[in-house]
Design goal:
four-stranded mixed sheet, single chain
Length: 441
Amino acid sequence: MKETIIQFGEGGFLRSFADVFVHKMNEQGLYDGKVVVVQPIAKGLIPVINEQKGVYHQFLRGIENGRVVDECIKVTSISRGIDPYTDYEEYLKLANNPDIHVIISNTTEAGIEYLGTESIEDAPPKSFPAKLTVLLYERFKAGLPGFLILSCELIDNNGKELLDCVLKYAKLWKLPEEFVQWVRTENHFCNTLVDRICTGYPKDEAEELTARLGEQDKLMNTAEIFHLWVIEGDYEKEFPLQAAGVNVIWTPDVRPYKKRKVRILNGGHTSMVLAARLYGLSTVKECLDDALVGAFLNKTLFEEIIPTLGNTEEDIRFGRAVLDRFANPFVKHQLLSIALNSVSKFKARVLPTILEYYEANDRLPKCMTFSLAALIAFYRTEEANDSEDIMEFMKNASVCDILKKEQYWGRDLSFMRTEVERYLELMEKQGMEQAFREVLA
């Protein structure tokens, strides 16, 4: 089977999402192609992917239409993995493959960035958009058609932002105007929304699930049964997801779907997890089962986030469904997994609601302000996991300097200082239990 898709990102999410969908299309005879996975950062899973020849087991579990679903799929849609940090030439060769027509990416919210310090001669350039620009330029020079590009990063206008970064690198590197026009007209940078809670490698269940499989699988992956992919445009003929039974929505405007999902589901996650971890919990399910943290999440969703969206019946139903998904008995979603790159996640998922709530009510939302204090407290621990420069700054800077860091937040947040410092002091002096009780009072 030919390689037809390049995927930037080898983590659990895309393997529970796009790679499963490609597997289903292939299995039903609707598509004939495999995924070649590119590792976007210096350390990753490519050696393991190649050791297992791209094959892994995906467990999908949850409640669907009132019945318990617990299924396992042996996914065979990945052909191989490429680490551009150790085999850059092999990476560049992908541009010359005429069979490849789709690019999919999920490099976290921090992945779509323009650094402006890289050279086209770097092997490879550091950022994902710079790597993509090099690949597109090689494609252009080969005289081949462009790509359908589906960026799955959870930022607003992810496709447009990725295109903007590519055009900035083209300008920085003084690439020909003909290439710039080719990027604009021959490639389709689609804004998308992805929704599936992926819980990754099941450490706590590894022995039990290995026995169930009857074989070792270092890449076995777990996720909820629910999924949704909203994509701007309509490329069903080229990429027949709907025909394969995938819950995909082709739409002219992804924004209403994305805003609701990112604000409620991801915003709920990010608002809760760092405070809950400081409180001593380990999984999202534990948070829902804990009286204090569960009440905190309910208050965050239904008194702060959803009213800011408009408080429609559809918003409320989505919020209730999110609580059911968080309480999924099969899902052991580790808080530390969600905590990865929390600064950029907070900016994308929580801060917009804080600002809109403040604008509408002339006061700060208690729970989400509390969550910013918890973020600062968490980054002072050894469990924080972010870029080295962010961790160094967050661990040592004052609250005042952190809130003024426009590079992180997109604006000066000094107007939040009094409340953030009050909650932070409460956490440090009286402990997280009392801090939760205070914010819920």
